[in-house]
Amino acid sequence: MSKSDNARRLAKQIRRQTLLTRSTSLRLARQVHTFSGSDIPDAADRSQRQFEARVAHCLADAFQDRQLNGALLGVTEAHSTDRGLTIHLEPEMSREVLRAVLPRMDEEYGGLRGVPALRISWGGQHVALYDTLSPAHIKLSHGERAFDTLLPNAHNGEHLLWRSNPRKATKDERNEWLEWDTWFLSQGQRETRDLLFSRILRRPTLVNRAAAPHGLANCYTHHPGDLVIEWCCGDTTETLCAVLLAHNFVDGLPPEKSVELFPSLASVQFGDSTVILRRHNTCVLPNEMMGSRKLSELIREDYTS
Ligand SMILES: [Zn+2]
Fold it and tell me: Separation of 234 CA from ligand 1 center, angstroms?
């Protein structure tokens, strides 16, 4: 199939799934180099989607602009099936990923951090994060290092819940979990959030494009209902949006809520402000003194401190 046939086919799909005009859909479609039409499976059930969503949200919150080697959430690859998900951790970030998601009470912070009710199991080559409140789990691939050397220790004022209660969620964790599910969103908005955040975790090679030029990007959250990805050089927001649309990112969402473009702000919103892409007009790392390499050194120091 020729390149223009591909673009037309993708433009048609974008038209079907969004309220974008024919010309905008075609403009977006032309920014995608390959469109095979193949899709990335979603998590099979709500609890799995919710678990993956919480992990993605927690990692965005934890890393912000502290990534190494262009791994936005500390993940370089994902193998998704409808029955499960395996993620490959960026080797230099893997300890920080575990530190971020394994739940702990933090006196200084004044509450629980990490993904409540999440625990970890390992034996031989198999390592998994799992939810103690449902059958949901995520397998981890972590490279060559002995896995237990990656497990984080408690910092001052921290109590590691996953270590003191290795198989069961505490009451605080159950309450925190409930908050995620009852936060000020309608049932439909919560389902959209869980679906889109889970899809973010299942598409690391796409979302990592935002972090490619400098080895990092900024990801953050305002509340349990959104996830923002912000960057400067490389892809425009339209290009990254088009790439996500080509990989069934908004499948199943109502067209009026699937995607909205804000060209004057260089911003794109998916799912009614659930996932937000934003690009600075100018480079935030304009000089070599604070260039990518220097920043990576500072981030490494920060990880080990
Ligand atoms: Zn830049």
Answer: 7
Alpha carbon distance 277, 33 (integer Å): 20
pLDDT of 108 higher than 60: yes
Write down the H helix ranges in the chain: 3-17, 22-29, 46-63, 94-101, 161-164, 171-182, 187-201, 204-207, 237-246, 255-258, 292-304
Structure tokens belonging to residue 204: 């690391």
Q: What is the pLDDT of residue 290?
A: 62
Cα-to-centroid distance, 285 and ligand 1 (Å): 5
Q: Give me ligand 1 centre to Cα 217, in Å.
A: 9
Beta-ladder partners of 230: 218, 278
Q: What phi and psi values does residue 97 have, to the nearest 5 degrees?
A: -60, -45
* Dist. CA 286 → ligand 1 center (Å): 7
Mean pLDDT of the chain: 92
Mean pLDDT computed over 205-220? 95
pTM, full prediction: 0.95
Q: Is there a contact between 11 and 26 (Cβ–Cβ < 8 Å)?
A: yes
Tell me if residue 161 falls in helix, strand or coil: helix
* pLDDT for res 1: 59
Whole-Å CA distances, 130 to 96, 127, 219: 18, 10, 24
